[in-house]
Amino acid sequence: MKRRRKTSWIHRWSRYLIGGVATTGAVLTGYLTLIKLSGNEAACPIKGCDQVLASDYATVFGLPLALFGCLAYIAMIVMAVGPTLLKSEAQIETRQKLESFTWNLLFLGGAAMMIFSGYLMYLLVTELKSFCLYCVISALLSTSLFVLSLIGKDWEDSGQLIFRGLIVGVVTLVATAGIYGSGDVNAVTEGTYVAQASNNPAPVATTTSGPSEQALADHLAAIGATKFGAWWCPHCFDQRQLFGKKASKTMKYVECSPDGLDAQPDVCQASGVQSYPSWEINGQIYAGTQELQELAEASAYEGPSDFQYNLNNIPKDMPQIIQ
User: Fold this and answer.
1) C or N terminus of the chain, fewer CB within 10 Å?
2) Which CATH superfamily is domain 196-322 in?
3) Alpha carbon distance 25, 72 (integer Å)
4) Is residue 238 scored above 50 in pLDDT?
């Protein structure tokens, strides 16, 4: 009598493991999508997340890249867990067909997501030169999905599997390079900001400075207050918008991004700057975008204070950054 081979634990639980990993990825990318659409700052314990999320690489076809990642993770959840919901005897044949079909999709989907994440890691190191914790976690999750799809089933034709993986890998790389490789690095048009390899000036404020904004800026300059920021930072742009075009040019500014115009990252590091923008006023660091009234109080400003804008009503029309 032929003994039935025992099913390994990984084969029994692989679909649920894939579903769990994909759910984690969907929650992560869903959060980043909401952050991107709302214009808020992501909670990140490590410096660099804001730069990556604010870059043009974080937007595809005018939508947050995280949105596409979230949809991909949801698709993996459906393919992994969907067939397991068919449990009645009448559904056994349908379940077996779905399992066979979806295993191929899980493998191909996992391979595509891993390769795409790998390309993003390459951009993170070579182009953005920043560390994004969320990006690294997503890359690890994508790699885990691929590994689980590979070892979670007893594949009969490994040669055919490798061939399919190579095909989807080439297609993914070509499509990704096509998406990110079409930008012009020398032109600046209305509503866009095309980044260069170095010496990127910060986008100019579009609001008009009133007497109170100018008076506060003059006061801050007189007492030696310093604003630290990065040219690509949307919150730094908001700070300039609060002051207006003229007043925002009055105060001392230190560019912290290495690829910015007149960059002084060593000065920022020595001053203990950990987020952008940051202010140094009378020897104390104030992190984050500051309301003008808050800057007035911190600097003992006693001039006119009928400021035109606050963080709730400023025009947030920073040009889209194209790398």
Assistant:
1) N
2) Glutaredoxin (3.40.30.10)
3) 9
4) yes
